[in-house]
Prior knowledge:
9 helices, alpha/beta, 7-stranded parallel sheet, Rossmann fold, 9 strands
Amino acid sequence: xxxxxxxxxxxxxxxxxxxAAVARHLAxxxxxxxxxxxxxxxxxxxADEIGGHGAAADVTDPDxxxxxxAALRKxxxxxxxxICCAGIAPAAKTVSRGAPHDAALFARVLSVxxxxxxxxxxxSAAGMTQASPMGPDGERGVIVLTSSIAAYEGQMGQVAYGAxxxxxxxxxxxxxxDLASHGIRVMAIAPGVFATPMVTGFPxxxxxxxxxxxxxxxxxxxxxEFAELATSIVGNSMLNGSVIRLDAATRMTSK
Length: 255
């Protein structure tokens, strides 16, 4: 799918980090971009920066999500591109100091990272199915989800996060198969350690240690590199039903 004025995009979790980088890259490519985020102020700030539109929504609340998507569609039309970057990553062990993992925290991580991702993807896909086919393949839309290398090599303290990102990776192929007859592709990116605000807030020695887990290049990933891959997926119609690792050959150790 060619990215341009006739391919509106929505970036979920676009107020900061990887999502904000994707929003900027899509806007530079000519697409109308809507920012959907729990952080209403952050969504508006990025939208104002790129000449797009912002809307607040809680991805775990289907009604809130539907209202936000409706507002963005009214402003820029039915999205043809959906990039899901929203997620949380609290750290907790299965058992710590004799106490089990907080069940509510585990459920919250799955609610945001799995149910929230699915809610955004399914609602967006429903809208895409009503859109006219585009291009020689009759494509109606592209959905890109965000998994993580923690889906494959979750570290100590990442049991909830690893489970959630594993679930995101697992939904890609069946979702792609569900939507194939409608001309909608589904992919996911599994990033390694990227220089998002959460990571750059760590002490420098911690950042350096994280960078050392990469084989080459031995550094943190740059958000624009994630954005470039996301837009490349949109542009290559043969990419469908798979998860792409973006990690400089990183294989996470246990801690």
